[in-house]
Design a protein that fits this description.
This protein is an alpha/beta fold. It has 2 domains: 33 residues, no CATH class; 222 residues, 2-enoyl-CoA Hydratase, Chain A, domain 1 (Alpha-Beta Complex), CATH 3.90.226.10. Helix content is 33%, strand content 17%. The strands form 2 sheets. A 7-stranded mixed sheet has the order 3-4-5-6-7-8-9, sandwiched between helices. It has a two-stranded antiparallel sheet with strand order 1-2. β1 and β2 form a beta hairpin. The relative contact order is 0.12.
């Protein structure tokens, strides 16, 4: 892939371009990158190819053909069945996340085309309460699976999550079983499920639909796991291997089928759909 290059010797015509927010520091190599250059490069660092986290909406825009995405259940918003409060009331946390992201909850679902192939797509959003899976996220993903089943469409789910949403307790944990059961029905109907693991994919999302794909793809160096490395190390009382819980480590262990650069993801998904005869 050819990276976006910029002439650093070229004078900046508008000094306002260097104001705060126009530059992004890569967390992997510490390079300062012009935001527009990073966005043009699909939010991948042109120096070290670190894949920055992106919103669910941006993921849909990158993956799908222009103007083909039709959202499903976009009106759904979380409730507070437990009246949960920790250092802040759950409803206040929801309101903060909605103001920050402009979204009702942490997943985009809908129908779309990927290189001319009609699909059902779901893209999780880590910027909304760390992409945690509550009742709305679970319901939207389940509804997307059921729509794919009813209409015999390939299902693409991009996971990017900190796991189950603790503020919904058992209601959140129920989504693991609900999404998995819907995928079992989809599988019996002969459906094709391509699971894409983005950084990070952890907790109850990993323990349910994220790892149930017919084909499991991952972005380079994505963190994928259930419990965190520190918890695992304390539990088993052993040092963990280098690169533990990275996509590359999981590829070697057989948990991931292929690691795909973000620039190649659309083409790879289209090829897999064709190969599966869908």
């Amino acid at each position: 892939m050819s990276a976006i290059t910029w002439d650093l010797d070229e004078p900046i015509a508008d000094k306002r371009a260097v104001r705060e927010g126009q530059w992004v520091q890569c967390p992997a190599c510490s390079e300062s990158i012009f935001r527009r250059a990073l966005e043009a490069n699909l939010m991948v660092c042109p120096k070290c190819e670190h894949h920055h986290r992106i919103s669910g909406r941006m993921r849909v825009e990158q993956l799908t053909d222009p103007n083909t995405f039709e959202a499903m259940n976009a009106h759904m918003a979380p409730m507070d069945p437990l009246g949960f409060t920790d250092t802040k009331a759950y409803l206040a946390r929801i309101a903060d996340a909605q103001r920050l992201t402009g979204e009702n909850d942490g997943v985009q679902t809908g129908t779309a085309f990927i290189k001319g192939r009609r699909v059902i797509v779901a893209a999780m959003d880590f910027t909304f309460m760390a992409g945690s899976m509550g009742s709305v996220v679970g319901e939207k993903i389940t509804a997307a699976i059921e729509h794919a089943t009813d209409h015999d469409l390939p299902l693409i789910v991009v996971s990017c999550s900190g796991g189950a949403r603790m503020q919904e307790s058992g209601f959140s944990l129920m989504q693991m079983a609900k999404t998995s059961a819907a995928l079992a029905r989809f599988d019996r109907a002969g459906g094709l499920f391509i699971s894409v693991l983005a950084d990070p994919t952890t907790g109850g999302v990993t323990a349910s639909f994220a790892m149930l794909g017919d084909i499991i793809l991952a972005e380079p160096k994505a963190l994928v796991g259930f419990a965190g490395p520190r918890v695992i190390k304390q539990t088993i009382r052993q040092d963990l291997p280098d690169g533990f819980q990275t996509a590359e480590f999981l590829l070697q262990a057989g948990f991931v089928d292929r690691i795909v650069h973000r620039s190649n993801l659309r083409s790879e998904i289209a090829r897999l759909i064709d190969y599966a005869g869908k």
